[in-house]
């Protein structure tokens, strides 16, 4: 098995070195939200050899996920997203430790997680209250966190970039997060965002759009209709997020 692992990560070793791979193997990363963005984060972290992954999401795979979510296939319809992601991880590298939590993360469920045990936290959830709670919990624990800003209603994957929250522009979600983080004394937050102006679906299409099954009933879930999304935009955001996590863990200080 050791020889297999060396072969599996041989191309990664060329970029990160054995010391970098060892740091990834020793890391434990929590990914909050395993959907269009978070699913690609999980995939990239697993393929890069992160040793332990905590997956947090209470949603199930549904038909409207098939157009963009890497965990969504006909065979996973109805499965919890964290279970579908865990199965993919086991098929990629069975030695990765996977912990799954069928939890809709809110300030009320924050005490179920010990942020001090994580090497890194990835925020790929949709609600502002949940994002703010993640930021506050991670900062209190001294754990690095990176947050995804808005990826909905966008078509240009090349527009995503990494920035401090207070250097962002255009993104409506980032604007709200800037105001709320400033109130809470958060003076720095690494985010992935896009300067692309969100598209507006036609009233007819918007009227027909349905929220994900069960989403509206969850406490704290967004009341607005689900935004438009496509295969190559949330995936791009997720891979940029994962790339930052991998570089920060494997090559600290660079």
Overview of the molecule:
- The protein is of the alpha/beta class and about 250 residues long.
- The chain has a seven-stranded mixed β-sheet, with helices on both faces.
- About 40% of the residues are buried.
DSSP helix fraction:
25-40%
Strand content: 5-15%
What gross morphology would you assign? globular
What strand line-up does the widest sheet have?
A: 3-2-1-4-5-7-6
Notable traits:
alpha/beta, 254 residues, 7 strands, 13% strand, globular, 8 helices
Could you give the topology of this structure?
Layout: H1 2-8, H2 10-25, E1 28-32, H3 38-47, E2 52-56, H4 81-92, E3 97-101, E4 120-123, H5 128-141, E5 145-148, E6 160-164, H6 172-183, E7 190-194, H7 203-208, H8 234-250
Parallel strand pairs: 1-2, 1-4, 2-3, 4-5, 5-7
Antiparallel strand pairs: 6-7
Helix pairs in contact: 2-8, 3-4, 3-8
């Amino acid at each position: 098995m050791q020889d297999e692992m060396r072969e599996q990560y041989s191309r990664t070793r060329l970029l990160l070195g054995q010391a970098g791979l060892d740091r990834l193997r020793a890391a434990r990363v929590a990914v909050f939200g395993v959907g269009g963005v978070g699913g690609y984060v999980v995939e990239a972290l697993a393929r890069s050899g992160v040793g332990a992954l905590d997956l947090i999401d209470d949603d199930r795979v549904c038909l409207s996920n098939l157009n963009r979510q890497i965990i969504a296939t006909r065979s996973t319809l109805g499965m919890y997203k964290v279970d579908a992601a865990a199965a993919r991880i086991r098929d990629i590298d069975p030695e990765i430790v996977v912990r799954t939590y069928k939890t809709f993360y809110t300030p009320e469920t924050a005490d179920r997680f010990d942020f001090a045990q994580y090497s890194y936290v990835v925020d790929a959830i949709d609600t502002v209250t949940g994002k703010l709670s993640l930021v506050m919990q991670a900062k209190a624990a001294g754990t690095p966190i990176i947050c995804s800003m808005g990826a909905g209603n966008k078509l240009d994957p090349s527009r995503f970039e990494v920035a401090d929250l207070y250097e962002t522009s255009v993104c409506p979600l980032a604007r709200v997060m800037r105001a709320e983080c400033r109130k809470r004394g958060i003076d720095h937050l690494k985010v992935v965002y896009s300067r692309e102006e969100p598209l507006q679906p036609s009233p007819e299409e918007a009227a027909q759009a349905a929220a994900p099954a069960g989403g509206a009933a969850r406490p704290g879930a967004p009341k607005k209709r689900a935004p438009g999304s496509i295969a190559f935009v949330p995936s791009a955001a997720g891979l940029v997020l994962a790339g930052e996590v991998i570089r920060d863990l494997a090559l600290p200080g660079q």
